[in-house]
Write a structure and sequence with these properties.
alpha/beta; eight-stranded mixed sheet
Length: about 325
């Protein structure tokens, strides 16, 4: 793409996994290129257990606000690339005065605010991508939580062995009962929800942001995999939730699902948002296959998900 003789080169590399260092570099480059247009702002909403930034990218300054969250789970790092590419594509459309999925980006900047938390679990993502590095300060504890193995490619939790998508205050007591029944009694690679809701700094930072900004009307948590959309919590169906769920379904071809009464049913991010604020919240399980999904799946997944994200911002 060119504008006034300037050739634009994409920032986000869609051909390799995105670790924390790559995320930081990409955000700095996006700030450098796009900040002068006032289309993007970076906010650090907190720190991970090991002290990494929990980044938020803010696009627009309108009254209608949505929030998109990636990489609750470590090995689902593909969701970070999806959200970062979405942010870049939006800002690029604004610079070149081109519509994005039939919407005028200048109008979006004035009428909407899009919050993007691309990587909620940076400690876990680095662990899943790079394995256990020698200088990790909790190395021995992580090996213990991983049942003696140094293969962390299937790791979902944060660096404390807590599954961040089970650390929210959504029937947390029921979650703990099911954990006990399932033999999950201590930190581990997946499914352990922590000692109490928001015990983890990553979740506490995000929940605090959402509580402080009472105008956030829609929440979307991206996960992999299954090509499914979870859009309600128990019998709670917020206003507009079914309509928006059908928009996602139309854009992606994914199926609308409702979780059963098992360990996946409680303590989740969208469940907390729905039950606390009675506003639409969605978990979108991107792609299909076996986690971690290969980077080669990115283009196919992104083409559907990006349109859904744009529709949710506009409706």
């Amino acid at each position: 793409m060119r504008k006034n003789g300037w050739k634009y080169q994409n920032i986000i590399d869609i051909n390799k996994p995105m670790d924390y260092a790559c995320l930081e570099e990409n955000i700095r480059e996006m700030e450098r290129i796009f900040k002068s247009t006032k289309s993007i702002e970076r906010v650090i909403i907190g720190k991970s257990y090991l002290g990494k930034n929990i980044n938020l990218i803010k696009i627009g300054d309108g009254a209608h606000k949505v929030i998109y969250i990636g990489a609750h789970h470590a090995m689902e790092w593909l969701t970070s690339i999806i959200l970062m590419r979405f942010a870049e594509d939006f800002c690029k459309s604004y610079i070149f005065n081109e519509k994005m999925y039939a919407y005028d980006p200048e109008y979006v900047l004035q009428a909407r605010t899009v919050y993007i938390v691309p990587m909620l679990n940076p400690d876990g993502v680095d662990l899943a991508i790079h394995g256990l590095e020698v200088d990790n300060p909790v190395r021995s504890r992580l090996i213990q939580m991983n049942k003696g193995s140094e293969d962390f490619s299937k790791w979902q939790a944060n660096a404390r062995g807590v599954d961040l998508n089970h650390n929210y205050d959504a029937d947390f007591n029921l979650l703990k009962e099911i954990e006990m029944q399932s033999g999950i009694t201590e930190p581990c690679a997946t499914r352990y929800g922590g000692e109490y809701p928001e015990s983890e700094p990553e979740v506490a930072s995000l929940a605090s942001l959402i509580r402080s900004d009472t105008d956030i009307s829609v929440l979307v948590a991206l996960h992999t995999q299954g090509e499914e959309i979870y859009w309600r919590y128990k019998d709670i169906i917020p206003p507009k939730a079914k309509m928006l769920a059908n928009l996602i379904k139309k854009a992606t071809g994914y199926e609308l699902e409702y979780p059963g009464e098992d360990i996946a049913s409680y303590g989740g991010c969208k469940d907390w948002f729905i039950s606390t604020f009675n506003r639409p919240g969605f978990t979108i399980e991107c792609g299909k296959g076996k986690n971690p999904l290969p980077i080669s799946d990115f283009v196919t997944i992104y083409n559907y998900i990006a349109e859904a994200l744009m529709l949710l911002a506009m409706n």
